Amino acid sequence: MSVNSYLASRASSAVLSEDERKSINTSIAALGTRLDSWFQVDGDKLQSHFRFGSQTRGTILPRRDDQHSDVDYMVVFENGGRKPQSYLDRLKKFVEGKYSTSEVYQSSPTIVLELNHIKFELVPAQHYYGSTYQIPNGPNDWQSTSPNDFNATLEEKNKANGYLIKPTIRLAKIWNAANGYVFNTYLFEKWICDRSFWLASNQRDYLFTVFDNLQATESAAWRNERITRAKKLVAEIRENESQGYPYLAEADAKKLIPG
């Protein structure tokens, strides 16, 4: 198997199975119903709630590839005017009341609900204007975000690049997770989407372009070590390919992106 074939196959396997998707959708439907039934008091009702993040973009990894893989879910409260911690406390009380046998904890700015098949991160929010919402920036302050605006940008970039951007992101996220989360996954996705791939023609080229553009200039030494090691593996793969050693190249590709 060539390096390109391995990487293309690995990217194709790094998606949610049909059973996983069905399970998530069932859990989302139940979550929505429970939210609506819980927040019924005037002044404490919800304006809306919806999923966002990598699961809506098609770049989420299954738990076997990323143990911290999660579904982001925004809960928009009808009335604002309070500090973020007030809404976080309300969400925590909700999940503790409705999911008493599941693991629940705060991981600012979210409330985490751990179910058997997936982790949900519930983000309290206030609608600001248009597609912009205010979400917690710590317990006392708010920050503006447009949660699904990146989706359209990614779709356009993916289509313009032969539908190889999303698979490339999934491969890069496998590397990131396997190496202790060198980068924030959302920012890593955006950074990859912003790269130029004009010389790339297949899955191998696209992934290697990502590593070619990484710089070992992080503040933490361990992050730089992981980046340097990845770039060295890419160089070794190219060298083995040029010397006619496809099996050695494939072995290095499996070290870079474990199966």
Automatic annotation (TrEMBL):
Superkingdom as given in the UniProt entry: Bacteria
Which InterPro entries has this protein been placed in? NT_sf
**SUPFAM superfamilies named among the record's database cross-references:** Nucleotidyltransferase
The answer to whether UniProt assigns keyword Transferase to this entry is yes
* Single GO term (MF): transferase activity
Please indicate if the UniProt record lists Transferase as a keyword: yes
UniProt protein name: Nucleotidyltransferase family protein
> What are the entry keywords?
Transferase
What the entry lists under Pfam families is as follows: SMODS
Which species is this record about?
Rhizobium leguminosarum bv. trifolii WSM2297
